[in-house]
Amino acid sequence: MNTFAFMIHPLDISDFARKFGLLGKLPPRLLEGLFKYSPPIKVSKITGVYSEHALAEGWFVACPITARLMMELPEQYVMGKIIQAGKLAQRMGAKILGLGAFTSVVGDAGITVAKNLDIAVTTGNSYTVATAVEGTREAARLMGHDLKRCHAVVVGATGSIGQVCARMLARDVRSLTLVARQKKRLEDLAHKIMYETGVAARITSDIQQALRDAQIVITVTSAVDTIIGPEDLMPGAVVCDVSRPRNVSKQVAEKRRDVLVIEGGVVEVPGKVNFNFNFGFPAGTSYACMAETMMLAMEGRYENFTLGRDLSLAQVEQISALAGKHGFRLAGFRSFERAVSPEEIVRIRERARAKLALPKAR
């Protein structure tokens, strides 16, 4: 049997209530502190993953530390907890482990975890990139944008996911702005993009300034708090928020009915998958990072696949080919944990066009 495990963790305190009911009603900081000392948890068994070529089954295992604590606690302590959860997956019979949410970005992005386990490890970032860019292109088309005439912004551009997103998006758009904190890394990425595509990407650390005239935005930072608000976006903007926790404030959905925000990496899983755990997605769908772990197991590729900060276009192309072989595909669009219908996108597009047509106040 092809087997895998995927590691999850609570993004915030509210996630405890979903799994532990009454226990989740304890005072938030007390609950967070208690679980900091908890051993790893077997959450559920995953069944029904199959294609015409292969089948697989696996498990969710949890490292019970919130996103906030993963950023605040000593790195060595957090890494020890992640490795402990990985060893639980190993004992359960998994042959490859996927690292979800912040477990994939702490420390050296999976390299140390892989060194301390006897099974393969992947962050799933290769397929996350593939689906984020594919979803952004399709959402832009539905919003009436011609990518060749669009200005795009990648927020978190120097991260492992952001870099490849930027390099792929540069092939499609008129102009590109890269946003991150470290100027030297931004300059290096801009030079690479110029060499590969001829696009002279602008660089900045000022998110709000970069977003003012952006029709297309991909945001993929490890920020714990939201960094994009309703006042930051132009009418008709398409924003693909790949980050968990989200980079885009929920106020954008509440106040900006002329902007389309989609979640990056929502994938339809082949077969009749049952996760036996509610992580907020419709039946039969998962994050792209989960899907990458599943398809590597189905293929019998028990190897460290996407690790560290350097992600290559070749890896993205390889995993996209495996997705096509086994029937993993983009599962429509979701925004703030709910499905977005084609009819709703039409309404967003029309509101944006009406707003852009209004004369500017003098």
TrEMBL record:
Residues 140-255 form the Quinate/shikimate 5-dehydrogenase/glutamyl-tRNA reductase domain. It comes from the Bacteria. This is Putative dehydrogenase. The lineage of its organism: Bacteria, Bacillati, Bacillota, Clostridia, Eubacteriales.
